[in-house]
């Protein structure tokens, strides 16, 4: 996927990891979706589906009554971010507290998925992504057409993206000095 000036990382460009974007999207759980309506910006958290074998799209779902889903389906520009917080970094100096994270920012345009079979297949794939091993008909009921009809599914065609990652210990001036006041380290938040 390409990067342009719009996705160029300006602060800490050495942390750019565009080659990890697909992996981050695959591991993420919540997408924060940004759009503009009547000149006002909105950012809404949504669950999503992403498949690294089809990296050109990300799928968002919500109620058909949702203003966000209506705008997302309209083809207007959209920004989607996904962040994985790997650790909280604490320092002996307040300014050097930080986080270890992996994130993706992507831009694209959405369109509604209306084919009932395609919606069913994508929703089933989404359930599998969030709950591996759950099987329709065994672990949960097959959704009736009425349920599919009240749930909107939007495919966002990804135009470009970039990934960013921060790893490592705190970087404060006294963080390596064990005789200095305070403490420094990393609180690991990754699931083991």
Account of the 3D structure:
The longest helix has 15 residues, at about 115-130. The chain is about 20% helix and about 40% strand. With about 190 residues, the chain is α+β, with helices and mostly antiparallel strands. It starts with 20 loop residues before the first helix and ends with a strand.
> Strand-and-helix sequence, N→C?
HEEEEHEEHHEE
Structural class per helix/strand content?
alpha+beta
First and last CA, distance: 30 Å
Q: Can you count the helices?
A: 4
- Overall 3D shape: elongated
The strand count comes to: 8
Low-confidence stretches: none
Largest sheet: 8 strands, antiparallel
Determine the fraction of residues in helical runs and give it as a percent range: 10-25%
Relative strand content: 35-45%
Radius of gyration using CA atoms only: 20 Å
pLDDT averaged over residues: 93
Keywords:
single chain; elongated; alpha+beta; eight-stranded antiparallel sheet; 8 strands; 4 helices; 192 residues
List the helices and strands and how they pair.
Elements lengths: L20 H7 L3 E7 L2 E7 L1 E2 L7 E7 L3 H7 L3 E14 L7 E15 L3 H15 L14 H5 L1 E16 L18 E4 L4
Antiparallel strand pairs: 1-2, 1-5, 3-4, 4-7, 5-6, 5-8, 6-7
Summarize the structure.
Helices cover 18% and strands 38% of the residues. It has helices spanning 21-27, 67-73, 116-130, 145-149; strands spanning 31-37, 40-46, 48-49, 57-63, 77-90, 98-112, 151-166, 185-188. Strands 1, 2, 3, 4, 5, 6, 7 and 8 form an 8-stranded antiparallel sheet that branches.
């Amino acid at each position: 996927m390409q990067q342009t000036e719009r996705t160029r990382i300006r602060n800490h460009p050495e942390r750019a990891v565009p080659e990890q974007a697909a992996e981050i999207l695959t591991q993420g759980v919540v997408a924060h979706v940004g759009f503009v309506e009547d000149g006002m910006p909105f950012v809404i958290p949504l669950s999503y589906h992403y498949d690294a074998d089809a990296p050109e799209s990300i799928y968002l779902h919500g109620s058909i009554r949702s203003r966000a889903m209506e705008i997302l389906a309209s083809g207007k520009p959209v920004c989607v971010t996904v962040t994985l917080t790997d650790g909280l970094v604490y320092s002996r100096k307040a300014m050097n507290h930080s986080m270890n994270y992996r994130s993706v920012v992507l831009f694209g345009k959405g369109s509604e998925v209306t084919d009932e079979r395609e919606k069913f297949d994508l929703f089933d794939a989404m359930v599998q992504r969030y709950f591996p091993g759950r099987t329709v008909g065994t672990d949960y009921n097959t959704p009736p057409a009425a349920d599919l009809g009240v749930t909107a599914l939007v495919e966002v065609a990804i135009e470009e993206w970039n990934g960013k990652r921060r790893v490592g210990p705190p970087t404060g001036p006294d963080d390596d000095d064990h005789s200095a006041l305070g403490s420094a380290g990393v609180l690991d938040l990754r699931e083991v």
